[in-house]
Amino acid sequence: MNAAIDKLAWIYVKDGKILAVRSKGKELFYIPGGKREQGETDEEALAREVEEELTVRIIPETIKQEITIEAQAHGKPEGVMVKMTCYSADFEGTLTAAAEIEELGWLGYSGRERMSEAGRIVMDKLHEQQRLQR
């Protein structure tokens, strides 16, 4: 069995909806974030990925680990898993789609089917915590 794909993700919930992003040419949304580069800490990788995708600056002292999940990796062969460590944090700037991101979305729990498998698991956990509205 291969090691899981190691990803970091930024959970930002506002008015009972989670911020989600969709890459160009893709159907499903995912939680913003990505893979760490050699030598990066989780916090450094999270801040870099969020700035690349959304043009905002994460405020480092507000970063808080939230949830870690494992799920089937979207678009990968059966059995290829993703381990996603999710953090919340405050930010500075205006959320703007950049790099490979085509669209930002605010998804309530009823929008769960529009999210990747890993994103659905995170949405389930946030819903259980009563942080997401329908």
From TrEMBL:
GO MF: hydrolase activity
Ranges for domain Nudix hydrolase come to 1-129
Q: Where is the signal peptide?
A: none
A Pfam family annotated for this UniProt entry: NUDIX
For this UniProt record, the keywords arranged alphabetically read as follows: Hydrolase
Does the keyword Hydrolase belong to this entry? yes
PROSITE patterns in the record, alphabetically? NUDIX (PS51462), NUDIX_BOX (PS00893)
Family per record: Belongs to the Nudix hydrolase family.
Name recorded for this polypeptide: NUDIX domain-containing protein
Q: Which organism is it from?
A: Paenibacillus protaetiae
